[in-house]
């Protein structure tokens, strides 16, 4: 038993070591990657399931590392957050997404663009002026922009968060609560935040129609959003059954692999071609 314990510990510490090394590697490569512009913003359509029209896109960052290939955001966003590099990277995403929105507008396409904000970015005192500058410089209509934040980002310093939200909203942008239902927000707080959209988290959608509990939670979130006069977007929708369940519960704007994975701007014509056959 002793030997086994030692082995387990050895194995464990090797694993921890590997994790620490990977972290360090990503941290170093991040700085370099930002300098060398190894990032690209992909866009995942948000579709009105009643008519297959793309009403908006969520901007999702991608890192194409010259040696490692694609490094998913779940691997590097937390590290960018911890090191503060997210402020610079996040500002770059805002700029790219607004330029994309402006290009769409120049083709008379009135799509919304959802952009993820990290906790650090949201707390940053310069966020409002940075965004204001980008809006003016790109000429994007602020009402096209939907900023996505999570419940946990709002719950820490509630008064400060409410103030920041009001300042962002004064620019004319909308606010979305991402991953709704997975955090700790109480419903009474939710009413105090000036938010416009709830995004039903994928964890509630993914096992519809097998999990009746998830179906009830999803239906309840949609009903509550409607009572609070919030728009609702369902995330992670992969099947026609899920689309139909959501329709039957009055949620029509959906995002997920059923319609499309996130794609580069260059892949959008192919996306529209596919959608026209659904
Ligand atoms: P998120 O904001 O919840 O984004 C949705 C994630 O779900 C995306 O993963 C998307 O590709 C994935 N997804 C969409 N539809 C489906 C589906 O039908 N099935 C499945 N299995 N997955 C689906 P992605 O792009 O890997 O991003 C992961 C997370 O990284 C995002 O979660 C967000 O928290 C963060 N992230 C991505 N881009 C940015 C960014 O520019 N800034 C910040 N701060 N965070 C970002
Ligand atoms: Ca999001
Ligand atoms: Ca989400
Ligand atoms: Ca998520």
From TrEMBL:
What are the EAL domain coordinates in residue numbering? 23-276
Subcellular localization: Cell membrane
Q: Does the keyword Disulfide bond apply?
A: no
Superkingdom of the source species: Bacteria
Which keywords does this Swiss-Prot/TrEMBL entry list? Cell membrane, Membrane, Transmembrane, Transmembrane helix
Q: What is this protein called?
A: PAS domain S-box-containing protein/diguanylate cyclase (GGDEF) domain-containing protein
Organism source for this protein? Pseudoalteromonas lipolytica
Say which residues of the entire protein are included here: 720 to 997 of 1001
């Amino acid at each position: 038993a002793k030997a086994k314990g030692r082995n387990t510990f050895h194995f464990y510490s090797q694993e921890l070591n590997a994790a620490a090394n990977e972290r360090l590697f990503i941290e170093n490569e991040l700085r370099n990657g930002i300098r060398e512009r190894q990032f690209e913003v992909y866009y995942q359509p948000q579709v009105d399931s009643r008519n297959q029209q793309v009403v908006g896109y969520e901007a999702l960052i991608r890192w194409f590392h010259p040696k490692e290939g694609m490094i998913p955001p779940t691997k590097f966003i937390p590290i960018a957050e911890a090191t503060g590099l997210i402020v610079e990277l996040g500002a770059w995403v805002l700029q790219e997404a607004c330029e994309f929105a402006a290009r769409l507008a120049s083709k008379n396409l009135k799509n919304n663009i959802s952009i993820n904000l990290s906790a650090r970015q949201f707390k940053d005192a310069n966020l409002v002026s940075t965004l204001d500058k980008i809006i003016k410089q790109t000429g994007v209509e602020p009402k096209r922009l939907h900023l996505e934040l999570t419940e946990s980002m709002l719950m820490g310093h509630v008064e400060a968060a409410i103030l920041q939200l009001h300042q962002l909203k004064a620019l004319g942008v909308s606010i979305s609560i991402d991953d709704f239902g997975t955090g700790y927000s109480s419903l009474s707080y939710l009413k105090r935040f000036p938010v416009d959209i709830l995004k039903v988290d994928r964890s509630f959608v993914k096992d519809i129609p097998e999990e009746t509990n998830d179906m009830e939670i999803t239906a309840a979130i949609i009903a509550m959003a409607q009572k609070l006069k919030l728009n609702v977007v369902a995330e992670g929708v992969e099947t026609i059954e899920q689309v139909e369940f959501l329709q039957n519960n009055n949620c029509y704007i959906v995002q997920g692999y059923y319609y499309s994975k996130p794609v580069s701007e260059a892949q959008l014509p192919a996306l529209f071609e596919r959608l026209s056959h659904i």
